[in-house]
Amino acid sequence: MELGYLASIVTMNGIEAVIKNTGDRYRRVNGAWVPLTNIKLNPGMWYKDWSSVEYKCSMSDNIVSLYVKATRGPEWAATAWSKSQILTFPDYVKPKVNDLNVPAAGVANSGFQLDSTGLYVRPFADITYAKGSWTSATLTWSV
User: Where are the alpha helices (DSSP H) in the chain?
Assistant: First the structure.
């Protein structure tokens, strides 16, 4: 990141900055500038089994918001409460929850599980995720 593009803003949480030409926000965490908009997440263990994992992740104060839509690659005959890790988190947005399950749109009886190790697609009943089927949700947590 070109530091000349930053305009410092003092906040209650320390130093934040905004890139003038894009409006993207950054915060200094442990001596490094990290993004607060368009946060890059990491592929999870089963990411490759999903033909597409779209997401948008951002942070405001200590609240992280994530929109996610996962589209299935090969068919998966899933048993209830099994899980497929699709994303992991950088430390500064890692959830401090043990097991949060959220219903999702798309495939019936499908949802997501959020914990400190990542984000998982999770069926709440025995279901089959056909090739091209999708599941989507919006989640918010504090860090």
Answer: none
Amino acid found at 79 = T
For residue 57, give the 3-state DSSP assignment: strand
**In the numeric block, which tokens belong to residue 36?**
């607060």
CA atoms of 77 and 38, how far apart (whole Å) = 33
Tokens 């009886």, residue located: 109
Distance CA 120, CA 107 (A): 15
Q: pTM to 2 decimals? A: 0.85
Residue appearing with tokens 């279901």:
127
Span 28-76, pLDDT tens digits: 888 888 888 899 999 999 999 999 999 999 998 889 999 999 999 999 9
Please count the other Cβ atoms lying within 10 Å of the Cβ belonging to residue 79. Answer: 9
Dig out the tokens for 114 from the structure.
Answer: 């959020």
Residue 19 near residue 3, CB atoms below 8 Å: no
Q: Is the pLDDT of residue 12 over 80?
A: no
The CA distance from 17 to 34, in Å, is: 10
Neighbours of 52 (CB within 10 A): 11
